[in-house]
Amino acid sequence: MSIVVTGATGELGRLVVERLLATVPAESVAAVVRDKEKAAPLAARGVEIRVADYDSPESLAAAFRAGDRVLLISANEVGRRIPQHTAVIDAARAAGVAQLAYTGVLGGPDADFQLAAEHKVTEQLILDSGLPYTFLRNGWYTENYTANLAPVLEHGAVVANAGEGRIAVATRADYADAAAAVLTGEGHLGVAYELSGDTAWSLAEYAAVVSEATGREIAYKNVPAAVHQEILVGAGLPEPFAAILVDVDEAIARGLLAGTSGDLARLIGRPATPLAETVAAAVAAA
Ligand SMILES: NC(=O)c1ccc[n+]([C@@H]2O[C@H](COP(=O)([O-])OP(=O)(O)OC[C@H]3O[C@@H](n4cnc5c(N)ncnc54)[C@H](OP(=O)(O)O)[C@@H]3O)[C@@H](O)[C@H]2O)c1
């Protein structure tokens, strides 16, 4: 039996493997990756590399073994994820894995925005498969904001169409620790965790935190959805992706990413990383 992480060369996956290596022997950890070269640093640390592509069901046939505890990290190509996730679930079922944990989205079936649609279908596919499951319904990454500091500092403003909506973000490392906890612990089968930061803040508050960290006046500029769409496309984002981000902001305005169930802090045994800490680190690195 191994603990298997898909998407192990991605940003979240690398952190999950890191946390696992701090907890269990390297020989009990396997990484499912599509690019063996990219996984060389993991192999060097003793992690078993299983090469498979979500787009190739044949390659997935050898990705899992009976009794494995598997983390399916949701794929990153919106619109392609249902066949991709279906292929992973089918392979996991054929192998007879002992646990399939899946990184979905905060709110699960109640999340009604575009980006949530494929996560909801995937959860249902997992339920239909009959596999022992754990749903890790991740809220927004703090890094979605801090990775975007450059234009905020350039324009002196956080621009969005989220109104006064609040967002309970946590860092990828927080979500990774939660994933590692359910893969190494007991009592997590048949459970859906609503994972998010301990505090929900508005974008006006985020702008104030950035002001504090930089010593510069940063405003929050709430704009209509159509204007935000134009700004994002003008900044070089493809139209469909810009539309998804605008739709997410509308969901934030409706309070859909504000949930603070406390599940994340309970799973990781510590508070989620405070916003100000992540912002300060990002400013220092900029
Ligand atoms: N909660 C949030 O705020 C938030 C934000 C962004 C994304 N997400 C979701 O969370 C997931 C993990 O986040 P992340 O930051 O780790 O994203 P990421 O760095 O883009 O990682 C995605 C991983 O999926 C792998 N992958 C993609 N297509 C694949 C395929 N056809 N076959 C095999 N592997 C494939 C990638 O492989 P390579 O390493 O080879 O590229 C990568 O390792 C994302 O994929 C997305 O579904 C959530």
Structural features, described:
The protein is 44% helix and 16% strand. The protein has 286 residues and is α/β, with parallel strands linked by helices. The protein has a seven-stranded parallel sheet with strand order 3-2-1-4-5-6-9, sandwiched between helices. Bound molecules: NADP nicotinamide-adenine-dinucleotide phosphate. NADP nicotinamide-adenine-dinucleotide phosphate binds at residues 7, 9-13, 34-35, 38, 53-55, 73-76, 84, 103, 138, 140-141, 144.
Oligomer: single chain
The gyration radius over C-alpha positions equals: 19 Å
Helix content: 40-55%
Q: Helix/strand/pairing class, anyone?
A: alpha/beta
Which band does the percent of strand residues land in? 15-25%
Q: Give the strand line-up of the largest sheet.
A: 3-2-1-4-5-6-9
Order of helices and strands: EHEHEHEHEHEHHEEHEEHEHHHH
What compounds sit in this structure? NADP nicotinamide-adenine-dinucleotide phosphate
What would the principal axes of the Cα set say about the shape? globular
Tally of strands: 11
Mean pLDDT across residues: 97
Low-confidence stretches: none
- Tally of helical runs: 13
Largest sheet: 7 strands, parallel
Distance between the termini: 42 Å
